[in-house]
Amino acid sequence: MLWARPDAEVYDRAAAPFRKIMKIEPMNEKDMEDVKVYRSIRGNAPTILGCFLFASIGGIFFYQKNEYFMAALALFFFGGGGVFLLFLLIWERVLKRPYLVISEKTVRVNGLRKVLEIRFSDVDAFSFVSKWMIGVRYKDDVELRKIEKSSRLYDSILKWNKQQYGSLEYISADGLTLTPRELYELLNGRLALHEFFARGARELEHSSASRVGHSIQK
Predict the structure, then answer these.
(1) Is the pTM for the entire model greater than 0.85?
(2) Is the CB of residue 47 less than 8 Å from the CB of residue 83?
């Protein structure tokens, strides 16, 4: 029996979190399609409006009360933050470059200049490290390899993340088109499916090798 697809009951349990989010039936080919997660316009609109409101208050301080230092801080932090967040929302949609792309084997986190690729084969689990952050718990050998290959500055960041959050890296789950809980269940659902298929492939390879060995002995 070919291992390409598991039996319906086992597959149904492994894919349950993914089906719950995507609202698709068990054993559907869409189960392993890439999932693209963008920053949510609706979810980030209050933050952007709040930033512009505080920036406008800073402008009032500048023109009416001559509080130049407070005005500069408000314009820089709140005005700059609002503009940056608005830029990210537009940039993702114009370039069709989502914040997260979750495929069958990897999670790709798209930054402005750098792309972080997380392979499911390197991961033990995804877990909440705060209400809005999902930590990536790598396997021990992968953690050591990441620390050894990183620069001195990035090495310090990784160790600080490990000390503070228990994970070298994390994924921000705030203001996305999926809720933090939905993203958490999707990531662990995909991880469970990947481990299931990987284990099946190893068992199939071992079984084939055993049959070949028996044939040679005969």
Answers:
(1) no
(2) no
